[in-house]
Design a protein that fits this description.
Elements (H helix, E strand, L loop, with lengths): L1 E6 L4 H18 L6 H8 L6 E8 L7 E7 L4 E7 L10 H15 L3 E8 L3 H9 L3 E12 L16 E2 L6 H11 L11 H8 L9 E5 L5 E10 L6 E9 L10 H15 L4 E7 L3 H9 L3 E13 L4
Parallel strand pairs: 4-5, 10-11
Antiparallel strand pairs: 1-2, 2-3, 3-4, 5-12, 6-11, 6-12, 7-8, 8-9, 9-10
Amino acid sequence: MHQIEVKTQMGSGDIDAVRGLLKAATVADAHAPLDEHAWLDLVQGGREGFAGLVAWEENHDHPVGYAQVSRGSGSWALEFVVDPHHRVPGNTIGSDLVQAAAGVIASEGGGHVHMWVNQPRPEHDRIAAEIGLAPGRVLYQMRRVLPVEEALRSGAPDLATRPFRVGIDEDAWLDVNNRAFQRHPEQGGWDLDTLKQREGEPWFDPEGFLLHDDGQGHLNGFCWTKVHAAVEPPLGEIYVIAVDPEPLTPAPGLGRQLVIAGLDYLHGRGLRFGMLYVDAANSRAVKLYVDLGFVINHLDQAYVGDIQAEA
C-alpha cells in the first residue's frame, strides 16, 4: 500500500530522496525521467504553479514514485516516474500519481495539460485516458555515429563559429532564440532568468555553445551542445539549434552547417554518438537530419487535454 505526499515546496531532504529515484530510473531506462525544465523546477524547491507528488510505500525508506506539475504560460506540464522495481502488473503507483496530479491542477483552476512520456507503452495510453488526455505531439530522438563523413559535408568549408560569452551574449541569443521559436511551447519565450539557470547547471559548457556571426556583429545562428556523460554510451546532444528567421545577411544552408559544426565539436570531445530531439511534425527538419545520417532511436509522446477547474 502506498501513500502520496503533495508538496508545493521541496526541501533538501525531499529533493535528495527524489534524486535517488530519478537516478535509478535513468539507469533502468537509459534516459532522464524528467525533462530539464521540470528538473530545474524540482531542484529550486518549487515556485508558483509547482507541485511535487511523492509516493511512499510501507517498509521502504525511498520513494516508489514521483509526479510533478508545473504551470507554464499557456498550459500545465505533467510528468511522472515509477521506481523500476515497482513496475509490475497490477501496481497502481503511476495511475494514482497521475490522478492526484490532475487533482492538483483542478484545484488550481484547471487548464490545458501536456503529459510527456518517453517511449510510451499501452499502460501510458490507459493512465492518460483516466484523466481525459489523448495522444498528441510526438518527438523523435535521433542519433548518429560520429564523426560526420566527408561525403555529407557537400564540399563546404568549416563554418566559422565562436563560443558563447557568459555575461555578454545573453541578450543577442535570447532575441534570436525567441524569434526562431516564437510558437514553440518549451523553447519559446525564454527570459534572462531561464538562460541563467542553464548557465548554472553542471553540464553547461560555453565552449560547446557555438555562435555564428554574420561578419557585421549580428548573431545569425547558433548550435548549443550538451554532453550526457552519465548514460551508456555517452551521448553528445545538439541541445538547441536555430537560425535567425529574419537575418540581416541571409546565409542559405546555415542550419545544415551549424549541425555539422556542433557534431564536430562533440566528436572533438571524444564522443562517438550524437543525438537530438525533433518534433515529428517538422518534416523539413526531420529530412535535414536524415540527410545528415541521423536515424530514429525512439520517440516521446505528449498526451494532451483539458482538466476542468474544481467545482
